[in-house]
Amino acid sequence: TFGTVTLAEDGLSANVAVTGAKFGETYEVNVAGIEQAFTVSFGTVNDYYDLVFDYDTEDSNENGIKDIAATGAETVQVTVKVVAKGTEEAYKTSGVVRFDTTRGGIAQNEAVLKDGVASIQLTSEAANELVQARVTATIVGDYELEGLTDSSLIECVPVDGDEDVEPVRRVAITNAVTNQ
Question: Measuring CA to CA, how many Å separate 14 from each of 1, 8, 20, 35, 73?
Fold first, then answer.
């Protein structure tokens, strides 16, 4: 809805208050007192908001990317916060965030935003060398910021110590038989 319109002193421009406009849409606006109609285009949700990632772990190898032990069993909490571009404070919105990762595992891939913040648990990947996981978060469903998406890196760092110790390996069970 286009609301309050304030015509500038030059008579050639106006400030228009807008509510309820959809991201990625274009609207034609007619302003009383100005003979020419204006076209107003709004960017995508990603032009106005960001998802800021945080991991409850440290950057042990001091390369600017937080990390987790590459045992296949270590877990870390991944938290995303919705912020308006250029700010750090959480934008208090609701919605559902879907998480995905290129390495490791996520037990529950969706979390509910509460006051613009959502968290899940990420399990490391078992590896004998450093691997990076890209964690992606996207707001899904019919919510105000639907489609907002971003990603972040976390590293799975091999555990120092006894070379004879094998990392935990996950094996898919394809068939099971019981005598019960």
Answer: 16, 5, 19, 12, 59
- With a CB cutoff of 8 Å and minimum separation 6, the contacts of 137 are 51, 53, 80, 97, 98, 99, 118, 149, 150, 151
Residues 44, 45, 50: CA angle, nearest 5 degrees:
130
Listed residue (141, 144, 80, 143) closest to 106, CA to CA: 80
Based on the number of CB atoms within 10 Å of its own CB, is 2 exposed (0-12), middle (13-18) or buried (19 or more)?
A: middle
Q: Mind listing the pLDDT tens digit for each residue in 83-124?
A: 999 999 999 999 999 999 999 999 899 999 999 999 999 999
How does residue 42 score in pLDDT terms, banded at 50, 70 and 90?
Answer: confident
User: Can you give the pTM of this predicted structure?
Assistant: 0.77
The strand pair at 14-18 and 67-69 is best described as unpaired
Contact status, residue 4 vs residue 16, Cβ threshold 8 Å: yes
d(CA 81, CA 91): 8
Q: How far apart are CA 10 and CA 72, in angstroms?
A: 65
**Residue 90, pLDDT score:** 94
